[in-house]
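MODEL INPUT / OUTPUT PAIR
PAIR INDEX: 1
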Amino acid sequence: MTRRRAWVSWSSGKDSAFALEQTRRAGTVEVVGLLVTLNRDADRVAMHAVRRELVQAQADRVGLPIHPVELPYPCPNEVYETQMDAAMAAAREVGVEHVVFGDLFLADVRAYREQALAGSGVGPLFPLWGRPTDRLAREMLDAGVRAVITCVDPAQLPAEFAGRSFDAELLADLPEGVDACGERGEFHTFVWDAPGFRSPIEVEVGEVVERDGFVFCDVLPAEPTLHARR
C-alpha cells in the first residue's frame, strides 16, 4: 500500500528534528520534504535566525529537499497566511497530504494550525503532542539530538543562555518555570546532529546580539573535524 506523503514544518530546531525522527519511525506517512519559513531580507529561518546554508546542510543530512516560504520582515499576518496558502497549494500539486508539526502542548497554536489548514486538502500531524516536556527533552538527548540555543527571550530566560548547548547541564540550569523544551518561546535551537542525520554538521558559535527584544546567537559553519560518522 502506498503511504500518504508529508512535509515536515522545519524550524531547524530540536522539536522539528525529533518530530521528523518520530514520524519516520512510525512509518504511517512518507516524509518527502521540509517546509521552511525564511526571513527573505536576512536569508535566515524566521525566529530561530539560522542561516539558510545551515538549513540546507540539515536537509542534506536527512536526505530531503527544502520547500522555502520567503517572508518579508516585518511580516503582516495576512501576508504570512497568503504565502502559506500558496505553499499548501504547491504541496497538494505534488501529492502531499500532511504537514508534520513539532508542537508540544500549546492548544492555541495547534488550533491555529488546524484552522489554517482547514479546507486546504492538507492535514496537520502532531507526533510529539502531549508528551511531558521534561521527559521529552531527555528523550531527545538520549536519542542523539545535539543542538545549540540560537535565540532567547530575555523576559523569560537570562540572555546568557544564548549560544549554550542543549544538553543535560543546560536542563539542570534552567530557572524554575522555564519549559525544558522552550515551548513557551523561552528559547529556540539549531540542531547540528540528530537521529537520521548521515553525519553531524560542524558549527561554531558566533556573535551574540540583541535585536527586537530577543537575544540571538549566530551559528556559523566550521571546518570539518573528526566528528564524521564511521
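PAIR INDEX: 2
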Amino acid sequence: MKIFTDAANIGEGLIRITEQGDIRHMAKVLRMQEGDVLEVSDSIEWEYTAEILSIDEDAVVLSILDQQKFAREPALSVTLFQGIPKAGKMETIIQKCVELGVSSIVPVFMDRTVVVEKGNFAKKIERWQKVSDEAVKQCKRGKIPTVEEQIRFAALEKRLGEFDLILFPYENENDYSIKDCLRGLLEKPARVAIVIGPEGGFSDREAQQMKTLGAACVTLGKTILRTETAGMAALAMTMYELEL
C-alpha cells in the first residue's frame, strides 16, 4: 500500500498520518498493525519506506526505514484536455490515464458535449479526483494527478500556451500520424498537451481553431476510436516515444 501525506507530517525519522480516511483504511480495511511496512509519498519529491510504530484513531506514527526520490513518476508532464463524455466514461478515462502517467486532466465543454452543466459540477470534480487518488495508490506513483475545474473550449487558447507540444488527434486526419509527429521532433518537450473531443468528435469550428493555435493534427491509426479510448491511446503512444 502507498499513502500520500503532506510534507509537514514528515519529520526527523518519523511520519505522522492524521488523515482520517487513511487511518480507517489502514486499520479497518487492511487491518495493518504495529510492525507492518508500507510506502509513503510527500507528493512533491520524496517517497519513503516506513514501519508502523503505533496506530490509533487519531494518528498512525511510522519510523522511516528508507528515503528515495520518486522512482515511478514520469519525467514528462502530460496534461489531458478531455471533451466531457456522458455516463461514467470519465471515471474510466481518469483511472487508466493515471496508470499510464498523465500529470493532470482538464474536463472541457465542447460543441458536441452532451453533458449539461446544472450547477453541481463541483461534485463531479470531487468524485473524479477521488478516482485519481485511488488509481495512483494502486500503481504506486509518487504524485497524485490533479483533476482540474472544467473549462469551455474557448478557454483553451489561453491554457495551451503553457505547453511545448500540443497533440490534437482528429478523426478526419489520415496522413500525419502521431508517430510521425513524435519521431520528427527536433528536441524532447517537457510539457505536452493532448486534446480529445467528446462523443461525436470535434466540430469543424473547433478543429480549425486547434490548427490555428498550432496544434499538431494527428491520426491515431486507421480505426476511429471512442472518446474514452482515444486519450488513453494517445497518452500511451506519447509515453512510449518520449518517456520510456
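PAIR 2 NOTE: The radius of gyration is 20 Å.
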